[in-house]
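We were asked to recover a plausible sequence for a given structure. The inputs and outputs are reproduced exactly as logged, with field labels preserved.

PROBLEM: sequence recovery
POSITIONS: 184
GIVEN STRUCTURE:
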């Protein structure tokens, strides 16, 4: 696999996170009726980052959960290897809440569809929004779109977008590879 081309370098990554957080605050104010839910596994890394930044900006805590969708996926039985589930960590219901689902890359929309199905087990929210760091808009299989988007890219179907997390060093970045390998 090639080395990949950096499409979001660390400094721009921080700017994007800041912009997304400001958009969320503008729409949800102090989050009294809202909650943030990261989609396991990779969406949680982004959601953790956003959650911590929102806590700093707001000076308060907000409802935050981590949702596993492994067995809600429409392809979980077609995999060659058994899937290993991540842990769902949600100690609240979403009834009458405004839910913000968070994922790193919006590609076909199937992950979000699975998350919406899994979310039903936690109640009936008033509204569900989607935040995606990267939106690959021309590769959608389902009519799903993000409400908050860090960056929109147009790429070939064989291409692969990878978010590299090194939050401790503030060296987070996003790479675009010409094609995905089995290692990804």
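RECOVERED SEQUENCE:
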């Amino acid at each position: 696999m090639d080395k990949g081309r950096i499409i979001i370098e660390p400094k721009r990554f921080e700017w994007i996170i800041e912009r997304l957080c400001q958009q969320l605050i503008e729409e949800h104010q102090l989050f009294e009726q809202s909650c943030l839910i990261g989609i396991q596994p990779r969406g949680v890394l982004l959601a953790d980052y956003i959650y911590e930044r929102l806590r700093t900006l707001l000076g308060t805590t907000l409802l935050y959960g981590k949702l596993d969708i492994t067995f809600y996926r429409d392809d979980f039985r077609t995999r060659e290897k058994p899937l290993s589930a991540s842990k769902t960590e949600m100690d609240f219901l979403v009834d009458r809440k405004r839910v913000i689902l968070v994922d790193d890359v919006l590609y076909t929309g199937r992950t979000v569809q699975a998350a919406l199905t899994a979310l039903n087990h936690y109640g009936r929210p008033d509204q569900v929004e989607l935040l995606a760091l990267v939106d690959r808009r021309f590769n959608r299989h389902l009519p799903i779109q993000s409400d908050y988007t860090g960056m929109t890219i147009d790429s070939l179907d064989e291409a692969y977008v990878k978010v590299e997390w090194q939050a401790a060093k503030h060296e987070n970045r996003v790479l675009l590879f010409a094609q995905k390998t089995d290692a990804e």
